[in-house]
Amino acid sequence: xxxKHFFYLFIFMIIVNCSGTQKSVKKVESDFNKSVIVNxxxxxxxxxxxxxxxxxxNKKLTLPISNxxxxxxxxLDRSVYKEQYGTLSVKIKNNAIDxxxxxxxxxxxxxxxxxxxxxxxCKSLYFNDGINTIRVKAFCKNVLFSEVGVSVYVVSxxxxxxKYSPSGxxxxxxxxxxxxxxxxxxxxxxxxxxxxxxxxxxxxxNCYTCHKDIVSRKYVHNEKNPWACSSCHGxxxxxxxxxxxxxxxxxxxxxxxxxxxxHKKEKKIWKSKKVxxxxxxxxxxxxxxxxxxxxxxxxIRADSINELCVSCHVKKKISGHIVNAFSRKKHPTSxxxxxxxxxxxxxxxxxxxxxxxxxxxxxQNDYKGYKxxxxxxxxx
Length: 380
Ligand code: HEC
Ligand code: HEC
Ligand code: HEC
Ligand code: HEC
Ligand code: HEC
Ligand code: HEC
Ligand code: HEC
Ligand code: HEC
Known about the structure:
- Helices cover 22% and strands 21% of the residues.
- By secondary structure, it is an alpha+beta fold.
- A hairpin with a 2-residue loop joins strand 14 (337-338) and strand 15 (341-345).
- It is elongated.
- Bound molecules: heme C (8 copies).
- One heme C (HEC) binds at residues 256, 259, 263, 266, 277, 279-280, 283-285, 287-289, 297-298, 300, 305, 308, 349, 354-355.
């Protein structure tokens, strides 16, 4: 046997039974993908620290999306998310891999023993606002075998810090022919949200398996029928919407028209008012409301109404709220019971309507004139 042949046999043995020494694992790794940095000092150990250092230098993930061992099908690299839930789908291409570990921003989120027959692993992940790096490490008998990664950016509708994604990150739609074909063998991706199907039992919705987390927060929009996904994401499989980059599920922006298709009563009241709050009049309901679910009542995007309001009206947070009608002194905006509704705390919406009002400054005392606002709470 020639030296060259012996070398290939050697590599083959490592791949098949992964009994190689640490040094030879290194050989395999670097042979497979040059951009995976594995040297004698970090082999078999956790390389988290190394990667973190690397990333803090250029904020860029240096891992490949795919190599001969593993491939990340989802999330799409450098894609922009608007929700905090995303999908991980990893193809395991080598039988020797017996365990994978999933990291999101260096936090271990899952360790999975790989059944030799299983060649695909799916999981839904939680992301934070901003850059999230997702890495999958594959092990064979506890030795780090291979590593792949992608990064995504979660934009915030509300907070300036995360409002815009950095260059290089773009919104990439999933539901087009090319992407779906990777999953359609096992998953159905057409809507079946008719009365009596998804309405009766969420698990029966074709969207449930992959998107259940999106409506998992405490307050769920349209709680009785949360799986009426196509009431906002119209389905257009046969239209031009199905380009490579587009999605077969519509993404209306502004969204108000869709919202008002159900909220007819509110539309009638609010649209009849003289003064309309700017984000409302622009139809950007989703700036303040998460259309799917929220941990805060009213499915608002912040932890409280005041936090929601001051995310845009920053001055009200920094210097307090001077109410002119009340001798230019600061009026409390929280920390007391709301006299108009003692079950709730005093908050911005105790005095302001977030949508529309007939009086200036969007005050709640619609028809009675601005000064009568005070009388709502102060009897004298
Ligand atoms: C070989 C079959 C197969 C293929 C191909 C496949 N999946 Fe799955 N997937 C499954 C099975 C089985 C489940 C578990 C079903 C369940 O829990 O109801 C699952 C579950 C999921 C879950 C839920 C995981 C969780 O944490 O609950 C997501 C998300 C998912 N798949 C996404 C995808 C995506 C995206 C693709 C295409 C890139 C894909 N899957 C391709 C078989 C497959
Ligand atoms: C095989 C898993 C899977 C199933 C089933 C599925 N989706 Fe998705 N969907 C995804 C993935 C993956 C994304 C990209 C975002 C992410 O990572 O979660 C996505 C994104 C979307 C988006 C954003 C637009 C886009 O194309 O990226 C909408 C809207 C959506 N899905 C709606 C639905 C609806 C409605 C259903 C049910 C009819 C459904 N999905 C079923 C996996 C799935
Ligand atoms: C009331 C309207 C409405 C309903 C109902 C709705 N969505 Fe959405 N969805 C939106 C809007 C608006 C966006 C745009 C992103 C945003 O503003 O948060 C969106 C975005 C998404 C995204 C993309 C998130 C991202 O990271 O880019 C997915 C996935 C999605 N919806 C899935 C679903 C699924 C699954 C259902 C059914 C359970 C559903 N939606 C029901 C309005 C809706
Ligand atoms: C398919 C019909 C439908 C659509 C479309 C729809 N909603 Fe709703 N929404 C409901 C139902 C039903 C309820 C619960 C009953 C109620 O309060 O009217 C609800 C409740 C709400 C609530 C009150 C939640 C609470 O916990 O108090 C808000 C806020 C809301 N929707 C906002 C929106 C926004 C924003 C949109 C557009 C992005 C929208 N809705 C689109 C049906 C819909
Ligand atoms: C500036 C932020 C903001 C915008 C923009 C906004 N909302 Fe609201 N919305 C709120 C707040 C705050 C509440 C009150 C929640 C509470 O009382 O806990 C609310 C409550 C609601 C309710 C519950 C019923 C009610 O009268 O309180 C519905 C329905 C609703 N909004 C729909 C919409 C729709 C539809 C749009 C877009 C046309 C929209 N909202 C735009 C902040 C907003
Ligand atoms: C997404 C950003 C955004 C959020 C969130 C927001 N606002 Fe506004 N608001 C605006 C803009 C833009 C204007 C119009 C420009 C201005 O006067 O600053 C405005 C104007 C106002 C005005 C003055 C109206 C007038 O006629 O002069 C009041 C009062 C107000 N907002 C109250 C609130 C309250 C209360 C909340 C929380 C429920 C809130 N805002 C949340 C963006 C926002
Ligand atoms: C006790 C009632 C009350 C509460 C609570 C209240 N406001 Fe006001 N707000 C007013 C009145 C009255 C005006 C009319 C202008 C004035 O008299 O100074 C006003 C005016 C405003 C304006 C437009 C003029 C300006 O000063 O910029 C904004 C924006 C505003 N409020 C935001 C908020 C926010 C954000 C909160 C919650 C942190 C809040 N308000 C809580 C009564 C209130
Ligand atoms: C939504 C209810 C509400 C409205 C409307 C309201 N207030 Fe108040 N106000 C309160 C609460 C709650 C407090 C704190 C508890 C208290 O002192 O009674 C307060 C406190 C005050 C105080 C005492 C402040 C201090 O620091 O000791 C004055 C003065 C006052 N309000 C004047 C006004 C004037 C003038 C208006 C009309 C522009 C007004 N309020 C509108 C709820 C309200």
